Automatic annotation (TrEMBL):
UniProt entry keywords in alphabetical sequence: ATP-binding, Cytoplasm, DNA damage, DNA recombination, DNA repair, DNA-binding, Helicase, Hydrolase, Nucleotide-binding
The protein's name in its UniProt record: Holliday junction branch migration complex subunit RuvB
Keyword flag DNA-binding: yes
Residues involved in DNA binding: R306, R325, R330
Keyword presence, RNA-binding: no
HAMAP family, A to Z: DNA_HJ_migration_RuvB
GO molecular function: DNA helicase activity; hydrolase activity
Head domain (RuvB-H): region residues: 270-360
Broad EC category: hydrolase
Residues covered by region (Disordered): 1-23
Organism from which the protein derives: Streptomyces hazeniae
Role played: The RuvA-RuvB-RuvC complex processes Holliday junction (HJ) DNA during genetic recombination and DNA repair, while the RuvA-RuvB complex plays an important role in the rescue of blocked DNA replication forks via replication fork reversal (RFR). RuvA specifically binds to HJ cruciform DNA, conferring on it an open structure. The RuvB hexamer acts as an ATP-dependent pump, pulling dsDNA into and through the RuvAB complex. RuvB forms 2 homohexamers on either side of HJ DNA bound by 1 or 2 RuvA tetramers; 4 subunits per hexamer contact DNA at a time.
Residue span, AAA+ ATPase domain: 66-197
One Pfam family per UniProt: RuvB_N
């Protein structure tokens, strides 16, 4: 199950304690470590990525060589960290984990690379946030397994070539478009992690429940999976909170009714929207008639920072078809009115004769 993808450098804009936030906190990382699958056979979802990785790793083992460098992209919580650990396990190699923000100088990267063992897997999370000098050093390390260490300063500085043992770099990014082409092109295998289907998330919930020694029936798992925003990490987190509710206010067994009541307490609705998501939609509909409205104005209306609305709430609302970004501002779709149980006025965006607003 790839719901853990424990980002070494999370998104600072995600409000603290947000149950449906896809970034991992300390508790998530600790619990999810016990839930991670150990091999590709246990890994749920991402069938194409799994098949392609399996072929590449089998071939590398048959040749007795280190696997090609791997780039994994996708939203937080989809399993990038888990896959990196599986790659190491499948290759029978140790793994070292670091992150782009932690490597701010070329010397930081040189220190890590020079201590790698032959065949070792280096997992570099949020690789797009690495400093430019370190990034340029990585080019040579990936291609030639060599780095030039600069000794001294000024005219007397000397470059000492340092040979590296063959290793496998696994880079993970939530923003693949920020990677420069020279770096992206040096990966032998690239994969994009997709959001999960409800049936796949149901499997995630069932497996997690077994490992956590929680009894849940199929309907209970379906209810949790349907509110998990296509993200295994969120499914895992919701399961733990429903487990708490079931233990305190019921007999410990998770049914559809118990799951629904628990998630109502935690303000996660049937489509996975939480308090922040509904506050954005409510302000857009009730205060601004469905839009269009500027992002900064919308953020002020809900009492949040502009970046929080743009990076935390908007992506899921857009993906769910509840909100649209247009040249004139943010606009609610007809589905947003329906979801909040409100009647859209005749002049609302998306009503008859108003569809042009959605053209961007």
């Amino acid at each position: 199950m790839n719901w853990d993808d424990a980002e070494a450098a999370g998104t600072d804009t995600d409000p603290a304690g947000r149950l449906v936030g896809a970034d991992a906190d300390g508790e998530d990382s600790a619990v999810e470590a016990a839930l991670r699958p150990k091999d590709l056979a246990e890994f749920v979802g991402q069938p194409k990525v799994r098949e392609q990785l399996d072929l590449m790793l089998r071939a590398a083992r048959a040749r007795g060589a280190a696997a090609d460098h791997v780039l994994l992209s996708g939203a937080p919580g989809l399993g990038k960290t888990t896959l990196s650990m599986i790659i190491a396990a499948e290759m029978g190699a140790p793994i070292r984990i670091t992150s782009g923000p932690a490597i701010q100088h070329a010397g930081d990267l040189a220190s890590i690379l020079s201590s790698l063992q032959e065949g070792e897997v280096l997992f570099l999370d949020e690789i797009h946030r690495m400093s430019r000098p370190a990034e340029e050093m990585l080019y040579m390390a990936m291609e030639d397994f060599r780095v030039d260490v600069i000794v001294g300063k000024g005219p007397g500085a000397t470059a000492i070539p340092l040979e590296l043992p063959p290793f496998t770099l696994v880079g993970a990014t939530t923003r693949a478009g920020l990677l420069p082409p020279p770096l992206r092109d040096r990966f032998g295998f690239t994969a994009h992690m997709e959001f999960y289907e409800p049936g796949e998330l149901e499997q995630v919930v069932h497996r997690s429940a077994r490992l956590l020694d929680v009894t849940t029936d199929r309907d209970g798992a379906v209810e949790i999976a349907g509110r998990s925003r296509g993200t295994p990490r969120i499914a895992n987190r919701l399961l733990r909170r429903v487990r708490d509710y079931a233990q305190v206010r019921a007999d410990g067994r998770i049914t559809r009714e118990i799951a629904a009541r628990a998630l109502e307490v935690y303000e996660v609705d049937q489509r996975g929207l939480d308090r922040l998501d509904r506050a954005v939609l409510s302000a857009l509909l009730k205060l601004f008639g469905g839009g269009p409205v500027g992002l900064s104005t919308l953020a002020v209306a809900v009492g949040e920072e502009r970046e929080t609305v743009e990076e935390v709430a908007e992506p899921f609302l857009v993906r769910e078809g509840l909100l649209a970004r247009t040249p004139r501002g943010r606009v609610a779709t007809p589905a947003a009115w329906a979801h909040l149980g409100l009647a859209a006025p005749q002049n609302a965006p998306g009503a008859t004769g108003q569809t042009g607003l959605f053209e961007a």
